[in-house]
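Q: Here's a chain of 286 amino acids. Please give me its 3D structure as tokens.
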Amino acid sequence: MAPVLTSPLVSTQWLADHLGADELVVLDASVHTAGTGLQTTWHAAQDAYEQHGHVPGARYADLITAFSEPGSHVPFTRPGAERFEAAAAELGVTNTSTVVVYDDSVGEWSARLWWIFRSFGFDSVAVLDGGFTKWRDEGRPVRVGALRTPAAPSDPGAGAFLAGEERALWADHDRVLRAVTGEEPASLVFAAPWATLGDDHPPIVPGSTPITADTLVNPDTNAYLRGSDLERAFAAVIGAGEIVTYCGVGSAACVDALALTVLGHDRVKVYDGSLADWWRHEQLAS
């Protein structure tokens, strides 16, 4: 029987206690970046996963290719249902699995994959609080090397994975523009750490409230803030009827979306494409 989740976040102790459990799938969703702003590049972190280690039994989930839509105008565009199903099934996920996702940074990539799973109706998914950084710093076991592809089940139907109907968890350019003009109000939350934009970049979306992802985690433990600390971080927007989070490409935005979910806000959307999409439209309009 798969472990039962009670929160969007699980502790390192919870994961240590459940490693090896039936139907638990652990995914490393790390992505590494270079450069800032418009010169940013993204690289799959599978080499680091294999050479520097990972949580025992974790499989590498490639957000750049497998869990993104190829040929899109902007990086990390969410995949369609069929592509998502194939990528999840390839990693051994079934509809009865419990999935725990982590990465080796402040959690933006694991939160991104968590949001994708939830957007397709899969709720038995959580993010490892503190990620691989906290796991490693606590001296917990680490494995080096690649894992073999999961063996195909003897019953083909047993390994199937079907996405649910896509939920309205994403915002597009038109939705954000309606928030800017006031036609359809929403609080716009800018989640990218300022350093990632560099010194020379186009303006962010007008009317945004900066609540950057790096301010939502404890710098000593890499774990999410809790309780009153988290409430204070979102004090400027928590009363809004709808909140749209965004960043550079839609990754750090998912940290804010997860934190708001922890606080119980149930009308949160992530602007897929984020500033990469916003700036593209601004350029097309000029």
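Q: Can you summarize the key feature?
A: The chain has nine helices and twelve strands.
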